[in-house]
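Weekly structure sync, notes
Attendees: PL, DS, HV (note-taker this week)

Item 1: Antirestriction protein (ArdA)
DS walked through the input record. Source organism listed as Streptococcus henryi. Sequence as pasted into the shared doc:
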Amino acid sequence: MDITIRLRNKLNGQVEEVALPTSLEAVKERFKLDETDDYDNLVIVDSNVDFIDEYDLLEDVLKFSELVEDVDEHLVYACHEFFGYDVRGFLFYVDDFDDMTLIYDVDTNRELGEYWVNELGIQNIPRDQLEMYFDYEAYGRDINIESSGGFVADGFLDVH
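Item 1 (cont.): predicted structure, written out as tokens:
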């Protein structure tokens, strides 16, 4: 996930755009701060991520950017939408995204049931018989109930 933030130095008004992930040392160098200068005077004034704002600590945002560096932004936004995570929530609750999958364009229990049956497959049952006797919606509803995830704007967030 690509993250860009704009930082402002409250002491002198200097504003810089910073692509993340990066280190705190690189940020201090960008603002020409030395060891005695405090980076607490740097405030986030803008971000390309909806839920990063001026109240987030720079250190937390840097850690968050490392966490999501190689993660599809749709998956990150799905977690934000479903769980309500902000930057600190992600850092507290998510170690990695290995146990999460965003199943795109699955918006109903029936579609979820069909997706699961197609993924797992049902041996030796012709598709037309399966359509007649199998209740995809009920199956999808049960998967939805048992999952820690749920439906989001882009599909179904599956958390195992």
